[in-house]
Amino acid sequence: MEPRAEYRDLLTQAYDLDKPTAPPEELAFHRGVIGAAEPVLELMCGTGRFLLPLLAAGIDVDGVDASPSMLDACVEHARERGLDVAGRLHEQRAEDLSLRRRYRAAFCAAGSWGLIAGDDEVARALAAVRAHLLHGGTFHFEVETGPGPPGAPGGTDWWVRPDGAVITARGGHRRDPDTGLERGVGIYELFVDGVLVHTELNHWVRRFWTADAIAAAVREAGFSEVAVRSGHTDAPPAPEDLLLTVHAVR
């Protein structure tokens, strides 16, 4: 089994400060591909930057994530917005998905599907998503084709919390020539009044895909009408694409 990217508390706080909301064009894209299909499941929903705007728009949407820190942040943001997420958030990995409901649509945003790295984990995750879709239900997700902005921090970055505390991040990553996986570590540190009070190590791994390889994996999981597109468009994939979107029907 391949290791999975970790989102512990300090990384979650840094992520939240760095990416407080979903990019409007990406949110509009996912809202468009979901269409009128409900209920909806978001895989790797994180802090809720996609899920909560959909819920606020009246869409019946649930979310799953493997990180308790991310889900805690999602609950807090829901409370701030006056949204009720009781019974909607589940701490589960995509490959171990076991939910009561079945969905007309599922999606995974922000390239997070690449955090599922091993062949077995990918196959199990795709099968689990398919099993949670109603007949004719759709799955929409993104994959990256190669290194763009690194997943694990390179050099040093920092964020200032509302209370004035500072979170710093440093680390590095490398590409495994045998597997093609990017592996890395990020060291996150919290400074309060200039004093280091907490240090946290997060491991990172992500997988890159070609259009043909991801289409084959999705078909192998039993999906039909599999289409791979260039970024958030309807155009076919191009050699220079860093991001692909995948659309499949159960």
Shape: globular
Record the strand order, biggest sheet.
3-2-1-4-5-11-10
Number of strands: 11
> How large, in whole angstroms, is the Cα Rg?
18 Å
Q: Report mean pLDDT, rounded to a whole number.
A: 94
Distance between the termini: 27 Å
Largest sheet entry: 7 strands, mixed
H-E order: HHEHEHEEHEEEEEHEE
Report the total helices.
6
Keyword list:
33% strand; four-stranded antiparallel sheet; seven-stranded mixed sheet; 250 residues; 11 strands; alpha/beta; single chain
What does this protein look like?
The chain is α/β, with parallel strands linked by helices and 250 residues long. Helix content is 26%, strand content 33%. It is built from six helices and eleven strands. The strands form two sheets. The chain has a seven-stranded mixed beta sheet with strand order 3-2-1-4-5-11-10, with helices on both faces. Helix 5 (119-131) links the parallel strand 4 and strand 5 (133-144). It is globular and about 55 Å long. The relative contact order is 0.17. The mean pLDDT is 94.
